[in-house]
């Protein structure tokens, strides 16, 4: 006579149900056999658990169980086809949810990630986006992330780094000048929304950093790189100064100093001025300073030299004038 399975203890049964319910909530429709195989238990144990779930829930405001206070199941499908479909979910389903706007923002981020070359297997990302859509407090707004020209450049840059071959391209530098570059690519990095290639530039005969959106006509060559990562020193900071850089004095909120750490020269003096810190930064030109200060509105102020203050002030005034003008 075969041994009968030992009955579950109450705490074991509770632990099993706490695992089973989220699993069922994550699957729109699943067979009893699939669930039994997933949890490694007899099919009849799954059927008993489902019947128990069907009379479980939380009391509403009246402190009595009313319609909608209990889990509900498509019973005909369960009894006739051995399929489990939850038609009403409570308790766990009442946990905090993302708003429709929050879910849409996360979905947009996942769409961007799925477009990157390293995420060729997009099944997991698609599943996560589907879960976010179902789990939001309202239907998220449809979003789409448009591919940019730099996506192809990013793919080529990463391929050249992996293969250890030279990359050549036309580059528009910060002064608006276009030059043809031949580079031994060493590393691809990102800062905020911008991607950068770091490598040995044969034109400058030094390590240089290139913004991918300023690269055009990139082409992978078949020439092996002449300078590898072990042959040159890549600085810890992404942006390196040069003798031609301009020094600008700024006042910045103490909590935001770390945001400009790459621009602050080593050994730069720091003085407390009220609730701000006065220090200096290095930029290649004042056009770059305008862009930098635009991202630090209300946090950083240009103090000196006068021409730097004038350039930033004029640029800000021109932008404000566009908003105040009427058609």
Automatic annotation (TrEMBL):
Ranges where the WCX domain occurs: 246-318
InterPro entries: CBASS_pafABC_assoc_protein, PafC-like, PafC_HTH, WCX_dom, WYL_dom
Domain WYL, residue spans: 152-219
Coiled coil spans: none
Domain PafC HTH: 12-134
A Pfam family assignment: WCX
PANTHER family assigned: PROTEIN PAFB, PTHR34580
Record-given protein name: WYL domain-containing protein
Lineage of producing organism: Bacteria, Bacillati, Actinomycetota, Actinomycetes, Micrococcales
